[in-house]
Design goal:
The structure is a single chain. By secondary structure, the chain is mainly alpha-helical. It is about 80% helix and about 0% strand. It contains 21 helices and no strands. α14 runs antiparallel to α15 and α16 packs antiparallel against α17. The two termini are about 20 Å apart. The relative contact order is 0.13.
Length: about 525
Amino acid sequence: MEQAVKTTGERAGQREWVGLCVLSIACLVYSMDLSVLFLAMPAIVTDLDPSPSELLWINDIYGFMVAGFLVTMGTLGDRVGRRRVLMAGAFAFGIASALAAFSSTAQQLIASRALLGIAGATVAPSTLSLIVNLFKDEGERNRAIGIWGTAFALGGLVGPLLGGFLLQYFHWGSVFLINIPVMLALLIVGPLLLPEYKNDDDGSLDLVSVVLSLASVLPIIYGFKHLAAYGFGMDQPVAVAIGLAFGYAFIRRQKTLVHPLIDLQLFRIPAFTASLAVNLAGVFFIFGIFLYQNLFLQLVGGLSPLEAAIWSIPSSLVFTVMSLQSYRFTGKLGPIRTVLIGLVINAVGAAVMAVAAYCETVVGVLAASMILGIGFVPVILTTTGLIVGTAPPERAGSASALSETSAEFGGALGVALLGSLGTLIYRVMMSGVDLTGLSPQQEEAASATLASAVETAKTLGPGAPVWLDPARSAFSLGFAVCCALAAVTLLALAIIAKRIYARAHLDESTLTAH
């Protein structure tokens, strides 16, 4: 197994690093749009008066479209040109931003957000695959991917903050208008700084495969996201089953095509498959754990949303610093050791989180979050580099899209499944708690979730009811069990990944050959 990543290939110059800055800013805007609406929703509700269903789609449609079109846009970039697809996406993103900003009805805003999602799906795979073209040296490429990953992380953090600032002084449409100058700058400087790459032997795009990929991804993402947000309902497993059925048909079709939308041969590369699995599992657990962490700080720790955000700043800084510095670990330890050590650190962080959650200590939870950041960021960024690095160059766009799609699935699955497990444990523990004095509706609310229990307690007047502490303990137990499960699974994943990487004989020569 490798000791370190060798410095190989042509060194990048000023043009390449400036190009990376342009790509990173585009990624930051794309990521911001996933969260920028959180604070704008009250103003949108007042102005557009959407129905509950329309409000749901205003929130969700962007993420759904991004997830559904990632594979199509990544493969399209391989075939017609990665820079060309990115430029077309930037133009469409700017137009859709203007349409969203000046929407006069909820239906117009939903349609604009859908177009934003389709355009946004060009950003992640195109920018990541272009990084492969810009940076030939393995060490520089790892550093570039770290900067690229930082842009995504910062987008999620900056979105609500910037949105709050704009909403203080301007119309809610301003949260979309800020996208336009960034995309305009990308359209101007992109052709000057970014190389073009396409595979001339890749044939035309199979539209049936595009439809099948959408029919596969969208119902599954829908099912798991709605399970996490609204609890179990029959529409969710039906949606997932429909998605899986279309997924089966999609895979069958790919096997018969000379130029498939997804080259299934990629999954015959052990290092590619192992890295994709590690990437998905890492996102699965981190999203699920952080969902609980945010709820824990407010519902168990008693912090206000602002106080919770302030207390979370140290762990956010750890994530940001590790994103910028993870290339140093990869360069010194090599990609495989970085992934394996990172998984072990992740497992330790999850175990510490389990103890802290069980003991109901806010400081312990936040300390565990910092440990998770130290392990998680190098794992995700390094596996992303391995996914695109072990794939053939002509498949870098498709590989990048698969990496992003696995992250979408991992996040949705983690929030839904770990959230459901914690909810189940909460309800089982609350079944033995004495709720005498509550109405049937209040009993049902207090037994369903801790958030409902806290809201119910507020309606009963001053002083906390005696059943509120057991409710908090029930939530904390569910949180702890999920973290313990994460710790065990991540350790097992490290062992399995080590064996797969060893069988693949993945070393410096393997990486740089691509």
